[in-house]
Amino acid sequence: MQESTVYRSIWREAEEEKTRAIALNFLRDGLSVEAVAHGTGLSIEEVQQLQQQLNQSPPN
Questions:
Q1: What are the angstrom distances between the C-alpha of 19 and each of 1, 2, 3, 12?
Q2: Is 20 within 8 Å of 43 (Cβ atoms)?
Q3: Are 26 and 8 in contact (CB under 8 A)?
Q4: How far is 3 from 6, CA to CA, in rounded Å?
Q5: Sequence-ordered list of residues with C-beta below 8 angstroms from that of 20, at least 6 positions apart, any chain
Q6: 60, 45 Cβ separation under 8 angstroms
Q7: How far, in Å, CA of 31 to CA of 10, rounded?
Q8: Nearest C-alpha neighbor of 53 from the set 19, 18, 28
Q9: Count of helices and strands (H, E) across the chain
């Protein structure tokens, strides 16, 4: 059975969200932007955007 386009799209979005969550955890632990990008496969620019979001969010 072939996967539908909708299913693949939803799966891809979920995987991307999971990767971003992992990147945020790495950033919170103090890893460098470059190390996070290398470890997650995200671009430097994507990781820098996540870092900015992290810096702008109020502490828990």
A1: 27, 25, 22, 11
A2: no
A3: no
A4: 8
A5: 42, 46, 50
A6: no
A7: 29
A8: 28
A9: 3, 0
- Please give the Cα distance from 14 to 38 (Å, whole number): 20
Tokens linked to 13: 């979005």
DSSP annotation of 41: -
What six digits make up the tokens of 28?
Answer: 């919170």
Residue with tokens 């996070």: 36
User: Dihedrals φ, ψ of 39, to 5°?
Assistant: -75, -30
Least confident of 1-5, 11-15, 39-43: 1-5
Average pLDDT score over the chain: 92
Portion of the chain with pLDDT greater than 90, in percent: 87
Taking the CA atoms of residue 14, residue 17, residue 22 and residue 24 in that order, the dihedral angle to the nearest 10 degrees is -170
